[in-house]
Structures are given as C-alpha cells and as structure tokens.
Design a protein that fits this description.
alpha+beta; three-stranded mixed sheet; about 35% helix
C-alpha cells in the first residue's frame, strides 16, 4: 500500500475515533496486544482457532431437520452438468454453450486482460490436468492393508484418530479439517442421487460397492471428514477472469490429491474412505462445513471461514474410522452478513439476496428446504457465467471483507470486533469500502508478481 493510502487510513481512524472504540472493545473482552490470540483446540487437539471463534451446540443459521430431505443432485441442483439442466430449455442450454465459446474467442482476439492467450492457456492447462486426476468413490486401493501385512488394523481412541487424520491431512495439503458424525439427521446432507445420476444407498453390508446404477455405503461408516483447500487470493481478486478461474481449478486439483491420499491413508490403517466420485459430489459441502465447524453460512449462500474467508473449496469423505466430532462455530460471520451486503451489491446479475435476515423459503427448486439461508438465484448466477465466458464468476468471493488474510494485526483485530461487537458491523463495512478493498485488480499485473507456491501463503493458516 502506498504512502497516501496509509495516510488516508490514519486520518480515517482518527476522524471516526475508531482507535479508541476498538481498544475499548478489546479491553472489554480481555484482549491484550501482546497476548496469545489462539484459543482452544478442535477435536484431536492439533488445530487451534483464534480465541474469538467459539464452539456452539447449534449452527448460527436455523435448521429444521424434519423438513429437510436428501437431494437428487443430478436433477435438482445446478452443481454439475453443462448449461442450466432442467431449469432451461434444450435450446437455451445449447445457446449458452455456444455463447461461452463465442465470447471467449472474441476476448481472445481483442487481447482482453484476464482472457488473453496466456490467461486461457493457464486455465486450460489446469483444466486438462484435473481431468486426468484420480477421483473415485472407493479410492485408488493401492496401499497395502493391515490384513495384507499380517498385522491388526489401527486401534486408537476417537480423539487420537481425529488427531492423526488432521495431522496427515495438513501434510497432504488440507487447510482446515472438521469431523461430522453421520446420524439420521446429518445423513440428509448426503445426496440421494449423486451429481452423475448414481443413487447413494446406505445398507447393512460389510463392504462398499459401486455399479452402473448406485454406490452403496455401509451403515458402519458413520463419520464424515470435511476439509478445505485454499484458493489463491491474489488470483481470485481478478474475478471473473480466467486468472480467477484457474485459481479455482488449482484448488480442486489439490483437493482431489488430498482425497486420494486420505483414502489410501485410511486403507493403510484398515478403514474405509468413501470420497467424491465427481466434482462436488457425495453431499452438500457447505452444510457439512458448517456442521463440522469450518465456517458459517454467509449471504453468498456459501461458507465463510474465520481463517480464509470464502477463499476455499470444500470437500468431504465418509469413513468408518471412529472420530471425535467437531462442533459448529460462532465467529460473528453470519451476523456480519446481515449488515454488510457487499457481495449482493457487487453481483452483476443480482443473484444474491438483499434481505436483512436469512429466510426459510428457497427461491427455486435448486435449493434444499429445511434450513435458513440467503437463498441465491442460481439460474441467474450460472447464466451470467455463460454469457460472460466464465465457468465460475467468484466476484462475490473477491469483494467479501473476510477475503483479506492475516497480513497484519489489524485484520485479526477487525475479526475480533465482528465476533464480539456486532453493533459496529456497519462501520466495519464502511471502513472496508473506504480503504478500497473489494475492487477488482488489474489482470495484467498478476503476471508480473512474485507469487508463493500455488498462489497461497500457508504461513497465514495459524
């Protein structure tokens, strides 16, 4: 940030008296600048969250489990497939698929920033490689099992099991990991029909299986491991260009590597690892992330995490390894979304809700009833993707005040305020605007920067 910007920030804080207010809030909550900002550990005792991230018994959005039903993801969502599925005519779907190719070529010929030959080449390189990545329900099944080694399988306590899984997954590349027990309620978050049209069935069987019609999950597999993988925030700030899209593809690519590695790790211990057979398959990722304490549901109708904001992709896997569960969290994120509305203001097709409170009534059949949310118009959202030559827009991610990572103490200070002093949430949003955050960055400049590996800085994760 240049000198004039720093001066503007100091003048802004001095004029509004924010310095005194934040110190007052900090004193009221017992914060000392030199103190330890980390609180209790999650299950397994290996992951420490900021002290203002509180575990709670129920999520910060309402859930009516009696109303919620398992979803046919192949028919009733816009998660997979090409075009808008059953929510548009065959002619409209064909038009959109033609449109995206046409606009990409036009932008390429104009040498438009974010869509130049090098931008599209990088995006297509990641897309092609991801298509060759191993991804399956049952996993690679190459690691030797304890039985094949002639030894008993691993036998640890649920808390110890959670610890070794989380340590291993951090080594594999996961950013954060949560554990959700599968019971008669949370099973409703597993798709009834997967994204590719195969039925997902729970059954009293000894081993999982898969055929042309269905995937069978043994009833003894009663835990879901849900995890995040970071996206490159500098690239995402170039949304909705190809530069931002390649950041998403890179995260999915790394997420698949984590899944395959985790499946083989569990197999090596003597347990099942049943993963996503297709991208965004198996179950409702945001719901599992909320139940597993990785973040809170936001106005984007996506999860925002305390550590990385919305700059993550979420994956999930089912196992029979007994695991100590994690609880939902309250970091003030959902409360902040009631006031902020920055993502809704920035959404070009006006697909996001401006309602002050999350509601219970979905705006379309693509949303699952039974929970509160700021339900988005997914058809408007996805139509914009095709009309503007992008397979994921992500502007809402880029402008979110939570998308700034912990580069300075002030950012953590603001997060602490959001969690403990919601009365100043409106002022916090105004500060975000005044400092110029959330403005799309120059796509061409991205190619001149010195980026860390994968565009992410893992030193910010703790």
């Amino acid at each position: 940030m240049n000198e004039s910007a720093r001066m503007n920030r100091r003048d802004f804080l001095r004029t509004l008296g924010i310095s005194g207010l934040t110190v007052g809030v900090a004193g009221a909550t017992g914060l000392t600048l030199a103190g330890d900002l980390l609180g209790d550990t999650t299950s397994g005792g290996v992951t420490r969250r900021p002290w203002w991230v509180r575990e709670v018994d129920q999520p910060t959005i309402g859930i009516n489990w009696d109303v919620m039903q398992r979803v046919d993801a192949s028919r009733d969502t816009l998660v997979g497939g090409r075009g808008l599925g059953r929510f548009a005519s065959a002619q409209e779907n064909a038009r959109l698929l033609t449109r995206i190719e046409q606009v990409q070529k036009e932008r390429l010929l104009r040498d438009e920033g974010g869509y130049t030959l090098k931008d599209q080449a990088l995006r297509n390189a990641l897309y092609a490689v991801r298509g060759q990545m191993p991804q399956s329900f049952l996993g690679p099944q190459q690691a030797p099992t304890p039985e094949e080694r002639g030894v008993p399988r691993w036998d640890g306590s649920p808390d110890e099991n959670a610890r070794i899984v989380k340590v291993a997954m951090r080594q594999m590349g996961a950013a954060t990991v949560g554990i959700v027990p599968l019971d008669e309620r949370t099973r409703k978050l597993i798709y009834r029909v997967d994204v590719d049209g195969k039925e997902l069935v729970f059954a009293d069987v000894d081993q999982p299986s898969e055929d042309e019609q269905r995937r069978v999950i043994p009833n003894r597999a009663r835990w879901v491991i849900v995890y995040t993988v970071q996206m490159a925030d500098e690239a995402m700030r170039r949304a909705p260009t190809m530069i931002a899209e390649q950041a998403t593809l890179s995260a999915y690519q790394r997420g698949l590597l984590v899944q395959a590695s985790l499946q083989e790790f569990l197999r090596g211990l003597g347990y099942l690892g049943l993963g996503e057979a297709v991208t965004n398959g198996l179950g409702i990722a945001p719901a599992f992330a909320v139940m597993g304490g990785l973040g809170e549901l936001s106005r984007q109708n996506r999860v925002i995490t305390p550590e990385y904001g919305p700059m993550v992709r979420i994956f999930k896997l089912i196992t029979d390894l007994p695991l100590a569960p994690d609880k939902p969290i309250d970091a003030g994120i959902t409360r902040f979304c009631k006031t902020c509305k920055k993502c809704a203001e920035a959404c070009p097709p006006s697909a996001l809700s401006f309602d002050d409170e999350p509601g219970w009534q979905p705006v379309g059949e693509w949303s699952n009833p039974g929970h509160q949310a700021w339900f988005e118009d997914s058809v408007r959202c996805k139509t914009y993707w095709y009309e503007h030559a992008s397979t994921n827009c992500s502007i809402c991610f880029a402008v979110c005040p939570f998308s700034k990572q912990n580069e300075s103490f002030m950012h953590d200070f603001i997060r602490m305020q959001i969690a403990n002093a919601p009365v100043i949430n409106g002022l916090t949003r105004s500060m975000d605007d005044a400092f110029g955050y959330g403005v799309q960055k120059n796509p061409g400049q991205w190619w001149t920067q010195d980026h860390p590996e994968y565009g992410i800085n893992t030193k910010k994760s703790r």
